[in-house]
Amino acid sequence: xxxxxxxxxxxxxxxxxxxxxxxxxxxxxxxxxxxxxxxxxxxxxxxxxxxxxxxxxxxxxxxxxxxxxxxxxxxxxxxxxxxxxxxxxxxxxxxxxxxxxxxxxxxxxxxxxxxxxxxxxxxxxxxxxxxxxxxxxxxxxxxxxxxxxxxxxxxxxxxxxxxxxxxxxxxxxxxxxxxxxxxxxxxxxxxxxxxxxxxxxxxxxxxxxxxxxxxxxxxxxxxxxxxxxxxxxxxxxxxxxxxxxxxxxxxxxxxxxxxxxxxxxxxxxxxxxxxxxxxxxxxxxxxxxxxxxxxxxxxxxxxxxxxxxxxxxxxxxxxxxxxxxxxxxxxxxxxxxxxxxxxxxxxxxx
Length: 350
Description:
This protein has one domain: ABC transporter involved in vitamin B12 uptake, BtuC (Orthogonal Bundle). Helix content is 71%, strand content 5%. It has 17 helices and 5 strands. Strand 1 and strand 2 form a beta hairpin. The protein is globular.
């Protein structure tokens, strides 16, 4: 055990995991004592959703070193596939197993699309990959908004994009722009925390595995990696698929936090993808812990500033700019490193 703790990477990973557990326990205690009001309590599941999304995107941006602007598309796929299953099985399965299966379906559906999209586009990189993934996210959203799925009066299954034929569907499961209604609300802070914790464990294990080191070598020098015999396409596909699967889990959690799910631009469009990217950048590219902290802080700030009214988003933008400057300015980072009490303690021990 002592040898394991001497490993700096293992120690940092344990700090991240144990820190999440401590925060979860503290939140549950405060919630049980009535110290958390209903407004903040309603944000606990979204905290988990956006943190999980940030962790998933960090695999592509931080570990792989590519830029994806369509990550909300995978979240959308996971959300609608899991919501469709839950609504169809609402009376057939108990809540807990139904929710677990729905999350797995959301992850598998998103991973499948991540794999299929990855086949033609992952030979691209940089700006070209960003543009293609941005287009993919918008295509997914628009396709879902055009779909009508359900059963006719005779009980036969019907799926169409023709709005004139949608009137033939009497029992609509997916109703075009109106989305899916009547979803059983199954998401809780505990289920959200478990999904986030599993996402963090998968990401940290991937980073420290042989495959993770191969992925990071591609990030550092693609040509050198190819010359050493590393299959660049294979490992990029692996990172993209795992990232999409985690985003699908986040989408499933998001879908089960409300009875209505619609593919709106503000939730599944490019603005959401860019917002998730902001979490990753502000938290520190490649830092799983930082991505989670940035996601929680930037989700909480607009709600805390609601008393300001119309100036809320202005203050929010100023705070984001300040965080970016502090996080990436060399002088501010040197100041933080110099006055880091944990670093001093480590030097003292040595």
